[in-house]
Amino acid sequence: MTEQPRSVARMQGPYDRTPERHQPADLADILERVLDKGIVIAGDIKVNLLDIELLTIKIRLLVASVDKAKEMGIDWWENDPMLSSRSKDRELESENQQLRERLKELEQGS
Amino acid sequence: MTTGLYAYALSRGLTDADVSGQPGIGGAPLRLVQLEGLVAVVSEVDLEEFGEEGLRRNLEDLRWLESVAIAHDDVARHAAGRAPTAPLRLATVFLGEESLAAQLAEWHDSAERALDRIEGRSEWSVKAYADPAVRAEPEAQQPPAEGVGAGRAYLLQRRAATQRRAASAQEDADLAQELHEVLADHATLSRRLAPQDRQLTGHTGEMILNGTYLLDDTQVDDFRQLVAELDGRHGHVRVELGGPWPPYSFSSLDAP
């Protein structure tokens, strides 16, 4: 994706940033907030979202109609923290599992 | 190309005029979808890129993630500067108008509560960094006590150094908590986030506090002064303020 063209004549709002925005530290702040979950950096700047599986399927991506989701076996409305309090346990559970798998990978030297 | 709707934020009282001229992801024009006083800010995205498979692939790509996150934040920021706005998470994608409308109906009441919570307020970030070079100066080496062999003396010294490091890390943790509590006292709501990875931010020193604070517009000036004061208070710790942010950390739709 290309950089957005910026309208020069745009009215400035209180949240609009200066052109020197989007420094690396700034990006970390943005990601932290738009993902609402910790980011783990492994090695050479590869963002490893602890829960990429969950990220795309259950937690953050609200795909479409509930019917369609049910067909696909997605129950995000039960898993999304924005929608349910039961999700916290699930999140921890899945995060644990992810970490265990990752550890196994590392131990196997992959 | 099959398109879906990417939702950036929920807002109240935002008008078409407010968002005209602000591009969405990929330069797509923003659209507002209304439901009983709630306004969703959306734009069309290609489902090849933002569907389940595309996202799974693309979220692993830091460049892609960066450009989408920045576009997302630009829109959230633009809306937040013009009306009370609760940003949604990255990649909240709908396959069509109907499912978006259904979701908006479901979100309606908690979104109203979230917007009430953040109206007239903004989010500010405070980070504290400890300079490890300044703390935990190794003490002058004691000559080994009578009858202690060189090997044992070396081990004793190593142990003492380890203990000093642990003690200063504990001191920093206590200090971070103390800073956070003082800051929280001057804010409407507060949260501690995980310290960030230096590889992503390039910061120097060790981030001991990554706090985020919801400030009423009337609290901002005092809070700025407080941060400046805290910054000068501890020799080896610098304290930095960032913001304003759209109220990302305080507008989740499930909070009471």
Your description of this structure?
The complex is a heterodimer of chains A (110) and B (256). Chain A is mainly alpha-helical and 110 residues long. Chain A is 46% helix and 5% strand. Chain A has helices spanning 24-35, 52-59, 66-71, 76-79, 87-107, and strands at 40-42, 46-48. In chain A, strands 1-2 form a two-stranded antiparallel sheet. In chain A, β1 (40-42) and β2 form a beta hairpin. Chain A is elongated, with a radius of gyration of 18 Å. The two termini of chain A are 32 Å apart. Residues 1-11 and 37-87 of chain A have low confidence and may be disordered. Chain B is elongated and about 85 Å long. Chain B contains eight helices and eight strands. Chain B folds into two domains: 3-118, no CATH class; 121-245, Alpha-Beta Plaits (2-Layer Sandwich), CATH 3.30.70. In chain B, 39% of the residues are buried. With 256 residues, chain B is α+β, with helices and mostly antiparallel strands. In chain B, the strands form two sheets. Chain B has a four-stranded antiparallel sheet with strand order 2-3-1-4. Chain B has a four-stranded antiparallel sheet with strand order 6-7-5-8, covered by helices on one side. The chains are: A mainly alpha (110), B alpha+beta (256). The interface between A and B is large, with 51 and 65 residues. Chain A: Residues 1-23, 80-110 are annotated as: Disordered.
Straight-line N-to-C gap of chain B: 40 Å
Overall structural class of chain B, as computed from helix and strand content, comes to alpha+beta
Discrete helix count of chain B: 8
Mean pLDDT of chain A: 51
- Give the count of structural domains of chain A: 2
Distance between the termini of chain A: 32 Å
Order of helices and strands of chain A: HEEHHHH
CATH class identity of the largest domain in chain B? Alpha Beta
Order of helices and strands of chain B: EHEEHHHEHEHEHEHE
**Largest chain-chain contact?**
A-B, 51 and 65 residues
Oligomer: heterodimer
Count of beta strands of chain A: 2
Output the radius of gyration of chain A. Answer: 18 Å
Q: With helices defined by DSSP (H or I, 4 residues minimum), what is the helix count of chain A?
A: 5
Could you say which structural class the secondary elements and strand pairing of chain A correspond to? mainly alpha
Kindly give the count of domains of chain B. 2
**Largest sheet composition of chain B:** 4 strands, antiparallel
Spatial strand sequence of the major β-sheet of chain A: 1-2
Contiguous low-pLDDT stretches of chain B (5 residues minimum) are none
Spatial strand order of the main sheet of chain B: 2-3-1-4
Note poorly predicted spans of chain A.
1-11, 37-87
